[in-house]
Amino acid sequence: MSGPLKLFLVAGEPSGDRLGAALMAGLKTLAPEVTFAGIGGPLMQAEGLSSLFPMEELSVMGIAEVLPKYVPLKRRIREAAGAVLSSEADALVTIDSPDFCLRVAKLVTEARPDLRTIHYVAPSVWAWRPGRAAKMARVVDHVLALLPFEPPYMTAAGMTCDFVGHPVVAEPLASPEEAAALRSGAGGPVLLVLPGSRRGEVTRLAPVFGQVAGRLRAAHPGLRVLLPTVRGVADLVRELTSGWPVVPEIIEGSDRKRAAFAAADVALAASGTVSLELAANGCPMVIAYDMHPLTLWLMRRAARIDTVTLVNLVSGTRVVPEFIGPDCTAARITPALEALLTDSAAQKAAMDVTMERLGRGGEPPGLRAARSVLAAVRGRLRR
Description:
Layout: E1 6-11, H1 14-30, E2 35-39, H2 42-46, H3 56-59, H4 66-87, E3 91-95, H5 98-111, E4 116-120, H6 131-137, E5 142-145, H7 151-156, E6 160-163, H8 176-183, E7 190-194, H9 199-219, E8 224-228, H10 234-241, E9 249-251, H11 254-263, E10 266-269, H12 274-280, E11 285-289, H13 293-302, H14 310-315, E12 322-324, H15 330-342, H16 345-358, H17 365-377
Parallel strand pairs: 1-2, 1-3, 3-4, 4-5, 5-6, 7-8, 7-10, 8-9, 10-11, 11-12
């Protein structure tokens, strides 16, 4: 490598855009001469990337849309790979979105086997489909992992890997004053309800979550319910919750969402990374999720873990109660929330351990990721 460092970055969805922007900021701090090319969203563009094409074209290409989008997706894969090869970049850094990113990496490595390839966000092979790691190792040299237990899975497949911290530890939190303002006037406990961000899961979970709110209101007449949501499902959430025994306060906007997480006494949430956001705020939680019985059967057959909650996995405990599939009923969920309103010490201890293990209090994940990328590109990491 001679001259200024040049990296080609590829992100395919908003979460990858956030990771990519933090990585770019870290790289500019450590290697001010670095230049970028690639594909990214508004946050990466704000850091200096001129996107080859709108990242949003990739964000809409989910599983349900693969067939109608197959031809344009293949064209974008070829276009991205061609741009990497013509850019004379020192390395290709792909960020999450494996269905797109790893196909680009495959074409690039076939044409230039010497080009360093780095992938940000390890696949969850510890949970299911462990063969993905070996498949990825054919086209990826180095991996940046978000979870502390992931590197051994990557190195076993033949890649180098660094744990660089989870972005949740760098997310801003509400101030005590903001949380207090949202709690103002509450005559009882504050319940945070998080039924998901996809229309299907919101539709499945809303009736059960409403029943839980009703049962808790019967025991706690002053109960207040906060329900943060996102723009794409906000109208559906309002429709589905309008008949609840206690109508929730719908929360929109990132500032008010942060305040709601900080203000709540306890949360009822769909499974997913939201458990880490709750842990960052020290909010005790119960996880509940329902799905089609066939989907649940297939998931349980393929699963390699006994819990779906990241707080349980990272802390090495099982203190966050889970109610999945047929167990996702108000009769089962409500007593678990009542127990947390009485005593949440064990969960709060596990949440503190989780945040510590994810990197809270240390160097920001974007800067750690930048150090790892530079070491990989400069040849200090070899598989």
